[in-house]
Amino acid sequence: MTIRSSFGRKILLAGASLLLTTSMAFAEEQPKPKGEAGSSPYEFRRDHDPNGIGKFYLGREIARVMGFGNSGEGALWLERETREKEEKVSLLVKSLKLEPGMIVADIGSGSGVISVLLAEHVLPNGKVMAVDIQQEMLDRLKRNCEKLKIDNVVPVKGAEKTPNLKPESVDLIVMVDVYHEFEHPREMLLAMSKSLKEGGRIAFVEYRREDPTVPIKLVHKMSEAQVRKEAEQPEFGLEWVETIGVLPRQHVVVFKKAKK
Length: 260
Ligand SMILES: C[S@@+](CC[C@H](N)C(=O)[O-])C[C@H]1O[C@@H](n2cnc3c(N)ncnc32)[C@H](O)[C@@H]1O
Hints:
Low-confidence stretches: 1-17, 19-37
CATH class of the domain at 86-257: Alpha Beta
Order of helices and strands: HEEEHHHEHEHEEHEEHEE
CATH architecture of the domain at 86-257: 3-Layer(aba) Sandwich
Structural class: alpha/beta
Radius of gyration: 18 Å
CATH topology of the domain at 86-257: Rossmann fold
Number of strands: 11
Number of helices: 8
Bound molecules: S-adenosylmethionine
Largest sheet: 8 strands, mixed
Mean pLDDT: 89
CATH superfamily of the domain at 86-257: Vaccinia Virus protein VP39
Shape: globular
């Protein structure tokens, strides 16, 4: 399977800015912003990677969110024709063991490249909740789905600390190149875990930080160990299931919601 042709677009500069590795700088801690002082799990550093936001969670710097762009450059980069060759997104979707009738949440859906691929694998009766915090991305996703006559993708406007999904309503959460951008990863993980059904899975698809040949900026990569360190904090109730290593650039680290 290939990415559908109407998603074929040229690579633009905004997206290309994600490429090329940079180094991370370290320095002293800044005062914590109001409301996050005291028990905050976050730390703030003045000197940091220019592609990060200077906010650290369990030793990892959080990356800047990839914007839609003034002329949609960000979305066009996500939809680039070369993506299937570079990232094998169709193989990614196959590796997720989807079944008809499943409710899948594509969190950080962007313009819907992954949502569209997921959608056909959960038919009949299944649907994809496509969650993003950028309205422009969701508007474009809606238009893309209309063009492709896909009616089982539901756009959901998320917020920075919650995907706004119903509790225990989702069989599988998928985040493709997204989690490292969450400004509030702890709050998002708590809320995502609540939205999972018991036994439901959550898949982190992240560029492999262990591999220096993966041509992506450092703060946009995560090691398997770091993903596990963050997701296995006891408060989330998540258990590691497997790490799928079939993709050329990313690993897929999968957890399930443990029984109460
Ligand atoms: C690099 S894009 C990936 C898009 C899509 N997953 C794909 O692979 O085509 C990251 C997306 O995550 C979204 N995002 C960042 N923080 C988010 C949050 N807290 N909740 C939902 N989406 C978020 C951004 O708006 C952006 O569209």
